[in-house]
Known about the structure:
Elements: E1 6-9, H1 27-40, E2 44-47, E3 49-50, E4 56-57, H2 60-72, E5 78-81, H3 91-94, E6 104-108, E7 112-114, E8 117-119, H4 123-136, E9 139-144, H5 148-158, E10 167-172, H6 182-190, E11 197-202, H7 206-217, E12 220-223, E13 230-232, E14 235-236, H8 240-253, H9 261-268
Parallel strand pairs: 1-2, 1-12, 2-5, 5-6, 6-9, 9-10, 10-11, 11-12
Antiparallel strand pairs: 3-4, 7-8, 13-14
Helix pairs in contact: 1-2, 1-8
Bound molecules: (5S)-5-amino-3-OXO-hexanoic acid and zinc ion.
Amino acid sequence: xxxxxxxxxxxxxxxxxxxxxxxxxxxxxxxxxxxxxxxxxxxxxxxxxxxxxxxxxxxxxxxxxxxxxxxxxxxxxxxxxxxxxxxxxxxxxxxxxxxxxxxxxxxxxxxxxxxxxxxxxxxxxxxxxxxxxxxxxxxxxxxxxxxxxxxxxxxxxxxxxxxxxxxxxxxxxxxxxxxxxxxxxxxxxxxxxxxxxxxxxxxxxxxxxxxxxxxxxxxxxxxxxxxxxxxxxxxxxxxxxxxxxxxxxxxxxxxxxxxxxxxxxxxxxxxxxxxxx
Length: 277
Ligand code: KMH
Ligand code: ZN
């Protein structure tokens, strides 16, 4: 089994300081939270940017500042930016994060109900973002909120817009999308192209359960405040790092080693970080 890649989704676009008083918002806060999560065993940081007042933004300069702050901490974590942004953003706005020089980025391959909103990703938008990533040499992670999105991802592969190795993230438990249940996870895994790797991001209380399922199944795990702010029922997690630490503890019990960023880059087909690994 591959060593376990842990992604930490630090901030997201939906959670507010009202929801969690320690939500990282400024580039410094986000970078420090990434550093702390990396220290605990995360090898990918999934990043969203916020304005000074906490509003989601895809502003290139803010992403650049976050990345600069991460590297200033001598942290070799894989930087994965969001191209999902927030509901309602245009494709042009969403792609601005790709100009900040990330190694990896998310790519949602279909539209989905997203709570009371619609996260709209029509075919033209998906292909436009995929092409932009290909031109910039940014590795995509397919964000799969529902089964049909795997079909759309396969279409991109057939069109030559994404090359191997393929990596998928199953986001499970968003209200309006695929429920976070074991039978659905098994079906998603079964629907992947041969050799693809996968991560699961359970939403809310499903974060823990889906992580615990993924580890013995040979998948990878995403945790963090973007998807879940609680440690247990009614108890807020102290930090993103605390959520990462718990996954490492479970993996340890199940005797699955944790991937370093260097190992994660090898698995995901990402070039070594110059001067680091
Ligand atoms: N904020 C969601 C609407 C991604 O990062 O690519 C989209 C999202 C997915 O978070
Ligand atoms: Zn995201």
